[in-house]
Known about the structure:
- The two termini are 29 Å apart.
- Mean pLDDT is 76; it is low at 41-61 and 390-400.
- It is globular, with a radius of gyration of 20 Å.
- It is built from 19 helices and no strands.
- The protein is mostly helical.
Amino acid sequence: MNRIQIFMRSYHPIVLSLLVGQMISRIATSMSMPFLALYLARNTDMSAALAGTFGGFVGGALSDRYSRRLIMFISLFAWSAVFAGFAFTKQPVLLLLLSMLNGLCRSWFEPVAQVLMGDLTEPERRFNVFSMRYLMGNVGVSVGPLLGVYLGVGSGPLPFLVTGLIYLLYGLVLFAMMNAFGIKDIEGAKKERATIGSAWHAVRRDRVLQLYIAGAVLVGIGYSQHAVTLSQHLQGNFEQGAQIFGWLLTSNAMTVILLQLPLSKLAEKFSTIASIHAGNALFAVGLVGFGLSPNVPLLFVSMILFTIGEILNYPAASMLVDRLAPEHLRGAYFGAQTFGNFGAFLGPLLGGWLIDTTTGAAAFSLIAAILLCSSFFYGSGGRQAAVRGSDSPAFRAAAP
Protein backbone atom coordinates (compact mmCIF):
# COMPACT_ATOMS: atom_id res chain seq x y z
CA MET A 1 0.00 0.00 0.00
CA ASN A 2 2.89 2.33 0.78
CA ARG A 3 4.27 2.01 -2.75
CA ILE A 4 0.84 2.74 -4.20
CA GLN A 5 0.55 5.86 -2.05
CA ILE A 6 4.00 7.02 -3.15
CA PHE A 7 3.06 6.49 -6.78
CA MET A 8 -0.25 8.32 -6.38
CA ARG A 9 1.50 11.29 -4.79
CA SER A 10 4.27 11.40 -7.39
CA TYR A 11 2.04 12.40 -10.32
CA HIS A 12 -0.58 15.03 -10.98
CA PRO A 13 -4.16 13.78 -10.41
CA ILE A 14 -4.99 14.51 -14.05
CA VAL A 15 -2.11 12.26 -15.14
CA LEU A 16 -3.45 9.49 -12.91
CA SER A 17 -6.94 9.95 -14.31
CA LEU A 18 -5.60 9.74 -17.86
CA LEU A 19 -3.75 6.53 -17.00
CA VAL A 20 -6.90 4.97 -15.57
CA GLY A 21 -8.88 6.36 -18.49
CA GLN A 22 -6.44 4.73 -20.91
CA MET A 23 -7.24 1.36 -19.40
CA ILE A 24 -10.99 1.95 -19.32
CA SER A 25 -11.12 3.30 -22.87
CA ARG A 26 -9.13 0.34 -24.19
CA ILE A 27 -11.48 -2.03 -22.37
CA ALA A 28 -14.38 -0.27 -24.04
CA THR A 29 -12.86 -0.22 -27.51
CA SER A 30 -11.47 -3.77 -27.50
CA MET A 31 -14.82 -4.99 -26.20
CA SER A 32 -16.48 -4.11 -29.49
CA MET A 33 -13.94 -3.24 -32.19
CA PRO A 34 -12.61 -6.77 -32.92
CA PHE A 35 -16.13 -7.72 -33.95
CA LEU A 36 -16.84 -4.64 -36.01
CA ALA A 37 -16.19 -6.64 -39.17
CA LEU A 38 -19.70 -7.97 -38.70
CA TYR A 39 -20.91 -4.47 -39.57
CA LEU A 40 -18.28 -3.19 -42.01
CA ALA A 41 -16.79 -4.11 -45.35
CA ARG A 42 -13.13 -5.06 -45.34
CA ASN A 43 -11.86 -1.77 -46.79
CA THR A 44 -13.63 0.28 -44.11
CA ASP A 45 -11.00 -0.44 -41.47
CA MET A 46 -8.30 0.72 -43.88
CA SER A 47 -10.11 3.98 -44.43
CA ALA A 48 -10.31 4.47 -40.68
CA ALA A 49 -6.59 3.87 -40.40
CA LEU A 50 -5.89 6.53 -42.99
CA ALA A 51 -8.26 8.98 -41.30
CA GLY A 52 -6.37 8.45 -38.07
CA THR A 53 -3.00 8.78 -39.76
CA PHE A 54 -3.67 12.20 -41.24
CA GLY A 55 -6.02 13.45 -38.53
CA GLY A 56 -3.54 13.23 -35.67
CA PHE A 57 -1.44 16.17 -36.80
CA VAL A 58 -4.49 18.42 -37.20
CA GLY A 59 -5.82 17.55 -33.75
CA GLY A 60 -2.45 18.04 -32.11
CA ALA A 61 -1.86 21.37 -33.85
CA LEU A 62 -5.32 22.58 -32.82
CA SER A 63 -4.51 21.68 -29.20
CA ASP A 64 -1.43 23.93 -29.43
CA ARG A 65 -3.47 26.75 -30.91
CA TYR A 66 -6.51 26.57 -28.68
CA SER A 67 -6.72 24.13 -25.79
CA ARG A 68 -5.74 20.59 -24.87
CA ARG A 69 -9.06 20.36 -23.01
CA LEU A 70 -11.14 21.47 -25.97
CA ILE A 71 -9.68 18.92 -28.39
CA MET A 72 -9.87 16.09 -25.85
CA PHE A 73 -13.51 16.78 -25.02
CA ILE A 74 -14.53 17.14 -28.66
CA SER A 75 -12.89 13.81 -29.49
CA LEU A 76 -14.29 11.96 -26.44
CA PHE A 77 -17.88 13.15 -26.87
CA ALA A 78 -17.72 12.59 -30.64
CA TRP A 79 -16.32 9.11 -29.97
CA SER A 80 -19.31 8.39 -27.76
CA ALA A 81 -21.66 9.41 -30.57
CA VAL A 82 -19.73 7.29 -33.09
CA PHE A 83 -20.27 4.09 -31.08
CA ALA A 84 -23.92 4.93 -30.58
CA GLY A 85 -24.09 5.25 -34.35
CA PHE A 86 -22.53 1.80 -34.79
CA ALA A 87 -25.26 0.38 -32.58
CA PHE A 88 -28.16 1.80 -34.58
CA THR A 89 -26.88 2.20 -38.15
CA LYS A 90 -27.00 -0.47 -40.85
CA GLN A 91 -26.44 1.65 -43.97
CA PRO A 92 -23.03 0.86 -45.55
CA VAL A 93 -22.25 4.49 -46.40
CA LEU A 94 -22.98 5.66 -42.86
CA LEU A 95 -20.96 2.79 -41.40
CA LEU A 96 -18.03 3.76 -43.59
CA LEU A 97 -18.31 7.36 -42.36
CA LEU A 98 -18.53 6.24 -38.74
CA SER A 99 -15.48 4.04 -39.19
CA MET A 100 -13.49 6.99 -40.51
CA LEU A 101 -14.72 9.18 -37.65
CA ASN A 102 -13.67 6.48 -35.18
CA GLY A 103 -10.11 6.63 -36.52
CA LEU A 104 -10.20 10.43 -36.47
CA CYS A 105 -11.41 10.62 -32.86
CA ARG A 106 -8.68 8.28 -31.68
CA SER A 107 -6.04 10.22 -33.59
CA TRP A 108 -7.21 13.47 -31.97
CA PHE A 109 -7.49 12.16 -28.43
CA GLU A 110 -4.41 10.00 -27.94
CA PRO A 111 -1.65 12.43 -29.04
CA VAL A 112 -3.22 15.26 -27.03
CA ALA A 113 -3.55 13.01 -23.99
CA GLN A 114 0.16 12.16 -24.23
CA VAL A 115 1.06 15.84 -24.53
CA LEU A 116 -1.05 16.77 -21.51
CA MET A 117 0.53 14.01 -19.45
CA GLY A 118 3.93 15.37 -20.42
CA ASP A 119 2.84 18.94 -19.62
CA LEU A 120 1.96 17.89 -16.07
CA THR A 121 4.99 15.65 -15.42
CA GLU A 122 8.62 16.53 -14.75
CA PRO A 123 10.85 15.62 -17.74
CA GLU A 124 12.80 13.02 -15.76
CA ARG A 125 9.57 11.11 -15.01
CA ARG A 126 7.97 11.21 -18.43
CA PHE A 127 9.46 7.92 -19.63
CA ASN A 128 7.82 6.21 -16.64
CA VAL A 129 4.50 7.86 -17.47
CA PHE A 130 4.61 6.80 -21.13
CA SER A 131 5.54 3.26 -20.07
CA MET A 132 2.69 3.16 -17.56
CA ARG A 133 0.29 4.48 -20.18
CA TYR A 134 1.30 1.65 -22.51
CA LEU A 135 0.86 -0.87 -19.71
CA MET A 136 -2.62 0.38 -18.81
CA GLY A 137 -3.68 0.17 -22.44
CA ASN A 138 -2.62 -3.47 -22.61
CA VAL A 139 -4.46 -4.27 -19.40
CA GLY A 140 -7.57 -2.88 -21.07
CA VAL A 141 -6.99 -4.84 -24.27
CA SER A 142 -6.65 -8.07 -22.31
CA VAL A 143 -9.94 -7.52 -20.45
CA GLY A 144 -12.10 -5.97 -23.18
CA PRO A 145 -12.66 -8.95 -25.51
CA LEU A 146 -13.71 -11.15 -22.56
CA LEU A 147 -16.22 -8.54 -21.47
CA GLY A 148 -17.44 -8.24 -25.05
CA VAL A 149 -18.14 -11.97 -25.20
CA TYR A 150 -19.97 -11.77 -21.87
CA LEU A 151 -22.17 -8.96 -23.18
CA GLY A 152 -22.98 -10.93 -26.30
CA VAL A 153 -20.99 -9.23 -29.04
CA GLY A 154 -22.40 -10.00 -32.46
CA SER A 155 -25.92 -10.61 -31.22
CA GLY A 156 -27.00 -7.01 -30.86
CA PRO A 157 -26.02 -3.38 -30.28
CA LEU A 158 -25.35 -3.61 -26.53
CA PRO A 159 -21.51 -3.67 -26.61
CA PHE A 160 -21.42 -0.62 -28.87
CA LEU A 161 -23.85 1.22 -26.61
CA VAL A 162 -21.78 0.34 -23.54
CA THR A 163 -18.62 1.54 -25.29
CA GLY A 164 -20.28 4.84 -26.19
CA LEU A 165 -21.55 5.28 -22.64
CA ILE A 166 -18.07 4.65 -21.22
CA TYR A 167 -16.57 7.35 -23.44
CA LEU A 168 -19.34 9.76 -22.45
CA LEU A 169 -18.77 9.15 -18.72
CA TYR A 170 -15.00 9.37 -19.16
CA GLY A 171 -15.39 12.75 -20.83
CA LEU A 172 -17.65 14.05 -18.07
CA VAL A 173 -15.32 12.86 -15.28
CA LEU A 174 -12.29 14.32 -17.04
CA PHE A 175 -14.12 17.62 -17.54
CA ALA A 176 -14.91 17.84 -13.81
CA MET A 177 -11.35 16.98 -12.80
CA MET A 178 -9.76 19.47 -15.16
CA ASN A 179 -11.96 22.24 -13.81
CA ALA A 180 -11.23 21.19 -10.24
CA PHE A 181 -7.45 21.17 -10.71
CA GLY A 182 -7.13 24.35 -12.75
CA ILE A 183 -5.95 23.02 -16.11
CA LYS A 184 -7.40 26.14 -17.71
CA ASP A 185 -4.93 28.25 -15.73
CA ILE A 186 -2.03 26.05 -16.82
CA GLU A 187 -2.99 26.42 -20.46
CA GLY A 188 -3.52 30.13 -20.02
CA ALA A 189 0.10 30.49 -18.97
CA LYS A 190 1.34 29.61 -22.45
CA LYS A 191 2.86 32.61 -24.16
CA GLU A 192 2.97 31.43 -27.76
CA ARG A 193 0.09 30.12 -29.82
CA ALA A 194 0.81 28.25 -33.03
CA THR A 195 -1.45 28.14 -36.06
CA ILE A 196 -1.90 24.96 -38.06
CA GLY A 197 0.10 26.59 -40.87
CA SER A 198 3.02 27.53 -38.66
CA ALA A 199 2.96 24.11 -36.99
CA TRP A 200 3.03 22.36 -40.35
CA HIS A 201 5.88 24.61 -41.48
CA ALA A 202 7.89 23.72 -38.37
CA VAL A 203 7.21 20.00 -38.69
CA ARG A 204 8.02 20.03 -42.40
CA ARG A 205 11.39 21.62 -41.71
CA ASP A 206 12.35 19.38 -38.80
CA ARG A 207 14.64 16.76 -40.28
CA VAL A 208 14.94 14.86 -37.00
CA LEU A 209 11.19 14.44 -36.65
CA GLN A 210 10.96 13.26 -40.24
CA LEU A 211 13.59 10.60 -39.55
CA TYR A 212 11.71 9.47 -36.44
CA ILE A 213 8.46 9.25 -38.42
CA ALA A 214 10.17 7.22 -41.15
CA GLY A 215 11.44 4.85 -38.47
CA ALA A 216 7.96 4.63 -36.96
CA VAL A 217 6.43 3.75 -40.36
CA LEU A 218 8.83 0.82 -40.77
CA VAL A 219 8.17 -0.34 -37.21
CA GLY A 220 4.44 -0.12 -37.92
CA ILE A 221 4.85 -2.34 -40.99
CA GLY A 222 6.55 -4.95 -38.82
CA TYR A 223 4.34 -4.67 -35.76
CA SER A 224 1.11 -5.02 -37.75
CA GLN A 225 2.17 -8.51 -38.90
CA HIS A 226 1.36 -10.04 -35.52
CA ALA A 227 -2.35 -9.64 -36.26
CA VAL A 228 -3.72 -10.42 -39.75
CA THR A 229 -0.61 -11.90 -41.38
CA LEU A 230 0.22 -14.16 -38.43
CA SER A 231 -3.38 -15.36 -38.32
CA GLN A 232 -3.26 -16.29 -42.02
CA HIS A 233 0.07 -18.08 -41.56
CA LEU A 234 -1.16 -20.09 -38.58
CA GLN A 235 -4.41 -21.14 -40.21
CA GLY A 236 -2.53 -22.32 -43.28
CA ASN A 237 0.22 -24.24 -41.48
CA PHE A 238 -1.09 -25.40 -38.08
CA GLU A 239 -4.06 -27.42 -36.99
CA GLN A 240 -6.40 -25.29 -34.88
CA GLY A 241 -4.52 -22.21 -36.11
CA ALA A 242 -7.29 -19.85 -35.02
CA GLN A 243 -7.15 -21.10 -31.43
CA ILE A 244 -3.35 -20.89 -31.37
CA PHE A 245 -3.57 -17.32 -32.66
CA GLY A 246 -5.95 -16.36 -29.85
CA TRP A 247 -3.62 -17.77 -27.21
CA LEU A 248 -0.66 -15.99 -28.78
CA LEU A 249 -2.49 -12.65 -28.56
CA THR A 250 -3.27 -13.41 -24.92
CA SER A 251 0.40 -14.13 -24.26
CA ASN A 252 1.26 -10.82 -25.93
CA ALA A 253 -0.96 -8.87 -23.55
CA MET A 254 0.14 -10.84 -20.48
CA THR A 255 3.83 -10.34 -21.31
CA VAL A 256 3.31 -6.58 -21.47
CA ILE A 257 1.45 -6.60 -18.15
CA LEU A 258 4.15 -8.67 -16.41
CA LEU A 259 7.30 -7.15 -17.91
CA GLN A 260 6.47 -3.53 -18.76
CA LEU A 261 7.49 -2.03 -15.40
CA PRO A 262 10.71 -4.02 -14.78
CA LEU A 263 11.88 -3.56 -18.36
CA SER A 264 11.10 0.17 -18.18
CA LYS A 265 13.29 0.43 -15.08
CA LEU A 266 16.07 -1.38 -16.92
CA ALA A 267 15.67 0.80 -20.02
CA GLU A 268 16.19 3.96 -17.92
CA LYS A 269 19.83 2.93 -17.49
CA PHE A 270 20.47 3.22 -21.22
CA SER A 271 19.87 5.81 -23.90
CA THR A 272 16.44 6.07 -25.46
CA ILE A 273 17.90 5.29 -28.89
CA ALA A 274 19.49 2.14 -27.43
CA SER A 275 16.04 1.02 -26.28
CA ILE A 276 14.74 1.59 -29.81
CA HIS A 277 17.56 -0.48 -31.33
CA ALA A 278 17.13 -3.32 -28.82
CA GLY A 279 13.37 -3.27 -29.36
CA ASN A 280 13.79 -3.44 -33.14
CA ALA A 281 16.20 -6.37 -32.87
CA LEU A 282 13.76 -8.32 -30.71
CA PHE A 283 10.87 -7.39 -33.01
CA ALA A 284 12.85 -8.86 -35.90
CA VAL A 285 13.79 -12.04 -34.04
CA GLY A 286 10.15 -12.56 -33.12
CA LEU A 287 8.99 -12.05 -36.70
CA VAL A 288 11.54 -14.52 -38.07
CA GLY A 289 10.45 -16.94 -35.36
CA PHE A 290 6.83 -16.69 -36.49
CA GLY A 291 7.84 -17.84 -39.95
CA LEU A 292 10.33 -20.55 -38.97
CA SER A 293 8.81 -22.08 -35.83
CA PRO A 294 7.86 -25.73 -36.49
CA ASN A 295 5.83 -26.12 -33.31
CA VAL A 296 3.59 -24.20 -30.94
CA PRO A 297 6.07 -23.74 -28.03
CA LEU A 298 8.52 -21.95 -30.32
CA LEU A 299 5.67 -19.73 -31.54
CA PHE A 300 5.11 -18.64 -27.95
CA VAL A 301 8.84 -17.97 -27.48
CA SER A 302 8.75 -15.86 -30.64
CA MET A 303 5.73 -13.93 -29.40
CA ILE A 304 7.38 -13.22 -26.04
CA LEU A 305 10.52 -11.89 -27.77
CA PHE A 306 8.36 -9.86 -30.15
CA THR A 307 6.44 -8.40 -27.19
CA ILE A 308 9.61 -7.43 -25.32
CA GLY A 309 10.60 -5.52 -28.45
CA GLU A 310 7.22 -3.78 -28.30
CA ILE A 311 7.78 -2.87 -24.63
CA LEU A 312 11.19 -1.35 -25.37
CA ASN A 313 10.23 0.45 -28.59
CA TYR A 314 6.92 2.24 -28.19
CA PRO A 315 7.38 4.21 -24.93
CA ALA A 316 10.90 5.15 -26.06
CA ALA A 317 9.54 6.47 -29.38
CA SER A 318 7.09 8.69 -27.48
CA MET A 319 9.94 9.91 -25.31
CA LEU A 320 11.99 10.91 -28.36
CA VAL A 321 9.16 13.06 -29.69
CA ASP A 322 8.48 14.55 -26.25
CA ARG A 323 12.11 15.61 -25.95
CA LEU A 324 12.34 16.93 -29.49
CA ALA A 325 9.17 19.06 -29.58
CA PRO A 326 9.34 22.84 -29.00
CA GLU A 327 7.17 23.73 -26.03
CA HIS A 328 4.55 25.59 -28.05
CA LEU A 329 4.35 22.82 -30.69
CA ARG A 330 4.16 19.73 -28.50
CA GLY A 331 0.65 18.88 -29.70
CA ALA A 332 1.64 19.19 -33.35
CA TYR A 333 4.71 17.01 -32.88
CA PHE A 334 2.82 14.25 -31.08
CA GLY A 335 0.10 14.54 -33.71
CA ALA A 336 2.72 14.23 -36.45
CA GLN A 337 3.89 11.04 -34.77
CA THR A 338 0.61 9.46 -35.91
CA PHE A 339 1.91 9.65 -39.49
CA GLY A 340 3.75 6.51 -38.42
CA ASN A 341 0.37 4.75 -38.45
CA PHE A 342 0.75 4.66 -42.21
CA GLY A 343 2.95 1.62 -41.57
CA ALA A 344 0.05 -0.12 -39.85
CA PHE A 345 -1.99 0.55 -43.01
CA LEU A 346 0.69 -0.78 -45.37
CA GLY A 347 1.76 -3.72 -43.20
CA PRO A 348 -1.26 -6.03 -43.63
CA LEU A 349 -1.34 -5.33 -47.38
CA LEU A 350 2.34 -6.21 -47.77
CA GLY A 351 2.18 -9.16 -45.39
CA GLY A 352 -0.90 -10.62 -47.04
CA TRP A 353 0.68 -10.35 -50.49
CA LEU A 354 3.90 -11.99 -49.29
CA ILE A 355 2.03 -14.84 -47.58
CA ASP A 356 0.08 -15.47 -50.81
CA THR A 357 3.14 -15.38 -53.09
CA THR A 358 5.94 -16.83 -50.93
CA THR A 359 6.36 -19.01 -47.85
CA GLY A 360 5.72 -17.89 -44.29
CA ALA A 361 9.45 -18.07 -43.54
CA ALA A 362 10.29 -15.81 -46.47
CA ALA A 363 7.45 -13.38 -45.76
CA PHE A 364 8.25 -12.82 -42.08
CA SER A 365 12.01 -12.69 -42.72
CA LEU A 366 11.58 -9.98 -45.35
CA ILE A 367 9.29 -8.00 -43.05
CA ALA A 368 11.89 -8.35 -40.27
CA ALA A 369 14.57 -6.92 -42.58
CA ILE A 370 12.32 -3.96 -43.41
CA LEU A 371 11.69 -3.33 -39.71
CA LEU A 372 15.40 -3.42 -38.89
CA CYS A 373 15.93 -0.59 -41.38
CA SER A 374 14.02 1.65 -38.96
CA SER A 375 17.06 1.61 -36.67
CA PHE A 376 18.97 3.51 -39.36
CA PHE A 377 16.39 6.30 -39.35
CA TYR A 378 16.10 6.45 -35.56
CA GLY A 379 19.88 6.36 -35.19
CA SER A 380 20.35 9.15 -37.75
CA GLY A 381 17.68 11.23 -36.06
CA GLY A 382 19.23 10.67 -32.65
CA ARG A 383 22.66 11.77 -33.84
CA GLN A 384 21.25 14.92 -35.44
CA ALA A 385 19.25 15.67 -32.31
CA ALA A 386 22.37 15.30 -30.17
CA VAL A 387 24.31 17.68 -32.43
CA ARG A 388 21.70 20.41 -32.15
CA GLY A 389 21.26 19.87 -28.41
CA SER A 390 17.79 18.30 -28.34
CA ASP A 391 19.02 15.03 -26.85
CA SER A 392 19.26 16.05 -23.22
CA PRO A 393 22.06 14.41 -21.22
CA ALA A 394 19.48 13.74 -18.50
CA PHE A 395 17.95 11.13 -20.79
CA ARG A 396 21.06 9.96 -22.64
CA ALA A 397 23.21 9.16 -19.68
CA ALA A 398 23.30 5.84 -17.97
CA ALA A 399 22.69 5.63 -14.27
CA PRO A 400 25.36 7.56 -12.35
